[in-house]
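Re: export button greyed out
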Amino acid sequence: MRKNPDMASAVAAIRTLLEFLKRDKGETILGLRENLTWATDCLTGVDSSVAVSSGGELFLRFISLTSLEHQDLSRCKKVMEERGELFLEKISMSRTKVAKLCHTFIKDGTKILTHSYSRVVLRVLEKAAAEKKRFSVYVTESQPDSAGRQMAEALRKLNVPVTVVLDAAVGYVLEKVDLVIIGAEGVVESGGIINKIGTYQMAVCSKAHNKPFYVVAESFKFVRLYPLNQQDVPDKFKYKADTLKTVQNLSEEHPMIDYTPPSLITLLFTDLGVLTPSAVSDELIKLYL
Amino acid sequence: MPGPDKETDLTERIEAFLSDLKRGGSGTGPLRGSAEMARETTSLLRRITAQARWSSAGDLMEIIRKEGRRMIAAQPSETTVGNMIRRVLKIIREEYARSRGSSEETDQQESLHKLLTSGGLSEENFRQHFTALKANVIEAINELLTELEGTTDNIAMQALEHIHSNEVIMTIGRSRTVEAFLKDAARKRKFHVIVAECAPFCQGHKMATSLSKSGIETTVITDAAIFAVMSRVNKVIIGTQTVLANGGLRAVNGTHTLALAAKHHSTPLIICAPMFKLSPQFPNEEDTFHKFVSPHEVLPFTEGEILSKVNVHCPVFDYVPPELITLFISNIGGHAPSYIYRLMSELYHPEDHEL
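Workaround output, generated via the alternate export path:
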C-alpha cells in the first residue's frame, strides 16, 4: 500500500484478500469463509478504517454469492478468482465515473470548500480543471494530521487557486463559498456518511447557510451500519488501531472520524449514479438481500 | 417507389416538428401544453420506428438518439421531448431483452450486486436481429400513447381524496392538470379557490375564468399578496413544467415564493404532475436551466427613456427545492419527493440520461 499511495485502502484490502484466496489451501467453503474472516480481521487490526471493513465485507459477500452458484470447490475458486480480478478492474474505474458525473456541477467562478485530503475529490477537481473551468478552492487544515495541506499541495500542482483555512474557520469562510464537496470513508445505510472529524461541523454550517453539500464516494464504500448518533459509531472506526491496543482510557483520545446524518447531505455522487440520500439504502438492499 | 418516398416523407415530418419546436418556444406559434408536445413526440418516434430503415435494435436506438439530440437542441427548455425519447429508448431495450429471453429487471441497472456477480464488462451491443422486434416496439409505443392520453383523467380521479369540503385551495398561473383536478373535485364538494395571477403573462386570469365557469368560487390575487393571504389557505395545489431528478421542480416563475410562503405557514404543497414531466436532469447542471423571454412584458418598449438606463429580465421558470414539497400526485398515484429517484429508475435507463 505504501508503494501506491493513490490506491484506496479498500482496494488494497480487497487485493490482499484475493491473494489470500488464491493461496488458500482449504477444502471446504466454510473453511474458506472462516479463513477469509480471519484475514479481514487481521487487516482491520492494522488499519481500522471504515473503507477497509466495508471492502472486506463486500468481498465476503461476493464469495458467498459465488459459492451459492457452484458446488464444486475447485471450480468455484477459479470462478471467484476471475470475478475477483474483474471486480478490481471495475472499481479502479469507479473514481473516473464519479469524476465524470460530478464535474458538471462545477461552473466557472465557483468557490468550493472541501475538507482534508480525499483522492476522489481530487480526481473530480482534476477533471473540472481539465475541462478548463475556473474555480477556486478552500481546504481545511484538518488536524491532527494536517492532511489538508497535502490536498492544497496537490491542487497547487493543478494550477488551481487554493487557500488553506483553519478547521475553526469553516463558519467564517462559508459565506464566500458556493458549494461544499467532500469525500467519504464510508457511506452508511441511512444515506449518511462517515468521514474525517470536522465533516459534521461543516455539514451543519452549510445547512445553516443554505449551501449545497455534495459527497463523492465510490460504491464499495457502502457499509452496513446504521448509526443513530455520534456515539453509535463503533470504536474500532473512531480511533486508530494502535490507539485501541495501547490506550487504557479511550475517553481521553480524540476520535478520527465523525458521522454526518443524511438530512444535511444534498446529493451523493457515486459510480452507480447521482443519488439522493434516500436512494442509498435501496442500493444496499439490492446487494445484501 | 414507396421506399424513398416514405423516407422523404419522414424527414419532412421531422423537419416540420423541429421548426415547430423552435417557433413554439419563442412565443410566436400557438402555445402548446406539455401533454400535446409529449404526444406529438411519441407519435413521431413511432413513425420513425415504422418507416426508417434499421436492422437491429442498436441501429434503431442510434437513429432515435440522433433525431432526439436535434429535437432537444431545437428547444432545450421543453423537457418532455427528451423524456419521451428516453422512454422509447427504454422500451426498445426492454423489448430487446424480452426477445432474447433474459430477465429484463435485474440486467438493466448498475448496482453493487451487479458489480459482484456479473461475468464480464457487459457491453450489450444490441446487434442481434429479431423479426418481431419492430412490431413489439410499435405496440409498446402505442401503449405509451394510451397512457399519455389518460394521464389527466388519472390525476383528476384522485382529487376527491385530497380536497375536502369548505377548504381554501391556492394555486398559481394556469395548469391544465390542476384545472381538471379541481373541476373533478367540484362535482362532489364545495370549496374555494384562490388563484395567484402570475405576472407578467397573467395566465392566472384564464384559469380563474375557466374555474368559475364550472361553478367554483374563485378569487384572483396579485403575486405580491401571496404571503398575506397564505394564512387562510388550507392547501396549495400547483402544476409544474418539469420534475427534476432530485425531486425539485422547474415551474413557472413565482412558484418558489409560493412554496416558501407555504412552508412558513406549514401549509401542504401538492404538485399535480404526470409522469412524462419527470426528467433525469439535476438543477445545477446545465446552462439551459433557465429561459428568458422578451422583457417587453415587464417593461414595454414604449417606456423608451428608462430602457437605456435599466437592465430588464423576464425569466420564465423558477427552481423549487424538494424540501418545500409535500406530495407529488401523478397518474400512478401519490409519492413523496424523496421517492422520485425510484420512479426515475423505473422509467429511464441510466445510460440514456445523456443522449
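The beta strands of chain A are 110-115, 135-140, 162-165, 179-183, 186-187, 193-196, 213-216, 257-260, 267-270, 273-275. The button fix ships in the next patch.
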